[in-house]
Amino acid sequence: MAEAGGAGCDHYRRSCLLQAPCCGKFYVCRLCHDSKEDHQMDRFKVKQVQCAKCRRIQQAQQSCEDCSSVFGEYYCGICHLFDKDKKQYHCEKCGICRIGPKEDFFHCSKCNLCLALSLQGKHKCIENVSRQDCPICLEDIHTSRVGAHVLPCGHLLHRTCYEDMLKEGYRCPLCMHSALDMSRYWRQLDDEVAQTPMPTEYQNMMVEVNSNTFLTVPPSSLPPLLATLCPPRSRSRE
Q1: Are strands 48-51 and 16-19 parallel, antiparallel or unpaired?
Q2: Residue 113 pairs with which residues in a beta bridge?
Q3: Residue (of 195, 191, 185, 225) closest to 208 by Cα position
Q4: Is cis: bond before 223, omega within 30 of 0?
Q5: pLDDT tens readout for residues 158-197
Q6: What secondary structure, in 3-state letters, does the chain show?
Q7: What is the Cα–Cα distance from 133 to 87, expressed in whole angstroms?
Q8: 118-129 as b/e: b if 16+ CB within 10 A
Q9: Res. 230: pLDDT tops 80
Q10: For residues 33 and 43, is the Cβ–Cβ distance under 8 A?
Q11: How far apart are CA 156 and CA 171, in angstroms?
Q12: Is the pTM of this model over 0.85?
């Protein structure tokens, strides 16, 4: 039997243990259970909890019916989530609890995920994108305790995975579009190009540019490009 010690575990702050409906064992949380067992606990089917203070086994509820210990400042009777108050709320459309405050988020029905209000009408929607695994760590995003970061292309990464990715590059690992707002960089290039005279022989020359970022950008929004034409490669081996 796992010990709670009245302080919860590495994942949650709570004063009770959950009885796993699958195997009947007691664990502080489903994540502790899943790391020890060869199966997963269904959080929605939890019926019984054990008080970490008096050890009374009872129906899942916010406080102990015997010693009145509060199992968690926040309690969801659907997810059976006990934790300290983080302004959590249960989203019926997501099907799980999210960290709020609720008024700072909205549920995007197409992406099937709660997002910050600052992204409402300002992000690219991808059908059920939250049900896709993170392309960096290949772990679940929808039910993860780690927040999701929405890339300009619409794909999702764990926030921590996004931060790690930026240490190596700045492109979405799925579609290779820029993962950052490059407008400031383009303006810098504009200034440099404006100060660089175009050689006469190249003034009317047109070239094709392949870019993952510019595929969906209107031609009028493309930054001016200055390039050097390389001489033809010699077939000589000398």
Answers
A1: antiparallel
A2: 108
A3: 225
A4: no
A5: 999 999 999 988 899 999 998 887 777 778 888 887 888 8
A6: CCCCCCCCCCCCCCCEEEECCCCCCEECCHHHHHHHCCCCCCHHHCCEEEECCCCCEEECCCECCCCCCECCCEEECCCCEEECCCCEEEECCCCEEEECCHHHEEEECCCCEEEEHHHCCCCCCCCCHHHCCCCCCCCCCCCCCCCEEECCCCCEEEHHHHHHHCCCCCECCCCCCECCCCHHHHHHHHHHHHCCCCCHHHCCCCCCCCCCCHHHCCHHHCCCCCCCCCCCCCCCCC
A7: 26
A8: eeeeebbebeeb
A9: no
A10: no
A11: 12
A12: no
Whose tokens are 């968690």? That residue is 72
For residue 236, name the pLDDT band (cuts at 50, 70, 90).
very low
For the record, the structure tokens of 119 come out as: 């992204």
Residue type for position 112: N
Which tens digits make up the pLDDT trace of 78-136? 999 999 999 999 999 999 999 999 999 999 999 999 999 999 999 999 999 999 999 99
Amino acid at 215: L
- Long-range contact pairs involving 156-160 (C-beta distance under 8 Å, separation at least 24): 156/113, 156/129, 156/130, 156/132, 158/134
Q: What residue type is 29 in one-letter code? A: C
CA–CA distances in Å: residue 22 to residues 28, 45, 46: 15, 9, 9
State which amino acid sits at residue 211. Answer: S
